[in-house]
Amino acid sequence: QKEVEQDPGPLSVPEGAIVSLNCTYSNSAFQYFMWYRQYSRKGPELLMYTYSSGNKEDGRFTAQVDKSSKYISLFIRDSQPSDSATYLCAMISEAGTALIFGKGTTLSVSS
Amino acid sequence: DTEVTQTPKHLVMGMTNKKSLKCEQHMGHRAMYWYKQKAKKPPELMFVYSYEKLSINESVPSRFSPECPNSSLLNLHLHALQPEDSALYLCASSQDQGKLYGYTFGSGTRLTVV
């Protein structure tokens, strides 16, 4: 079993839809969770980070962490064509030295 | 614009060439990283420079060698690469090994080995 599992999609939604992106993980030591957005041929851009369990909201983006289920989510409200990108989850333990990434989910928002 | 600057943005090199990729950050971060990313795949860690200590992914071939001249610069020296080494090479930095604030990535160097 891979440490971090993420459905690669692709996921296609109409403009204005609510998007739900998810990752599961197996290492219960992971404490820090991030979501990155990567446009084609660009480096990843940090969108959200959370520590341990709970929710965090930033504009149209909400990140949720459920450590009991080893499950993290990113919700995008009122999705826009500019949200079309690949979304990578990433996580690290307290003792870790580098982030562990999911495969990434490719999202396409049509106008 | 990203606060991690990578040069060059594109590089084409032959299998006998020697080249270097450069990465610079001025955020005072103490950890810097090299990642390799193939198309439609997540970034794969190659090297970590954290608090002046190098950590290596054991699977990275010796034809890649990192160099950290100072805390703001991280170079990746390339020698005798293979066509399968063609990829996007990403540099990143972080304040605390990425735990609280994540990494800041550069835009990458797109490398093609011919």
Keywords:
heterodimer, A: 111 residues, mainly beta, six-stranded mixed beta sheet, five-stranded antiparallel beta sheet, 11 strands, 0% helix, B: 114 residues, seven-stranded mixed beta sheet, four-stranded antiparallel beta sheet, 55% strand, globular
Question: Can you put this structure into words, describing what you see?
Answer:
The complex is a heterodimer of chains A (111) and B (114). With 111 residues, chain A is mainly β. Chain A contains no helices and 11 strands. In chain A, strands 2, 4, 5, 9, 10 and 11 form a 6-stranded mixed β-sheet that branches. In chain A, strands 1-3-8-7-6 form a 5-stranded antiparallel β-sheet, with no helix packed on it. In chain A, strand 4 and strand 5 (45-51) form a beta hairpin. Chain A is globular and about 45 Å long. The model of chain A has no long low-confidence stretch (mean pLDDT 94). Chain B is mainly β and 114 residues long. Chain B has no helices and 11 strands. In chain B, strands 2, 4, 5, 6, 9, 10 and 11 form a 7-stranded mixed β-sheet that branches. Chain B has a 4-stranded antiparallel β-sheet with strand order 1-3-8-7, with no helix packed on it. In chain B, strand 7 and strand 8 (73-79) form a beta hairpin. The A-B interface holds A 8, 31-32, 34, 36, 41-46, 49, 51, 88, 90, 92, 94, 96-99, 101-104, 106 and B 2, 4, 6, 33, 40-43, 45, 48, 50, 55, 88, 90, 92, 97-108, 110.
Short description:
The complex is a heterodimer of chains A (111) and B (114). Chain A is mostly beta strands and 111 residues long.
Poorly predicted runs of chain A are none
> Main β-sheet of chain A, in a few words?
6 strands, mixed
Number of strands of chain A: 11
- Spatial shape of chain A: globular
Please report which band the strand proportion of chain B falls in: under 5%, 5-15%, 15-25%, 25-35%, 35-45% or over 45%: over 45%
Radius of gyration of chain A: 13 Å
Query: DSSP strand (E) fraction of chain A?
Result: over 45%
Mean model confidence by pLDDT of chain B: 92
Low-confidence stretches of chain B: none
Termini gap of chain A: 38 Å
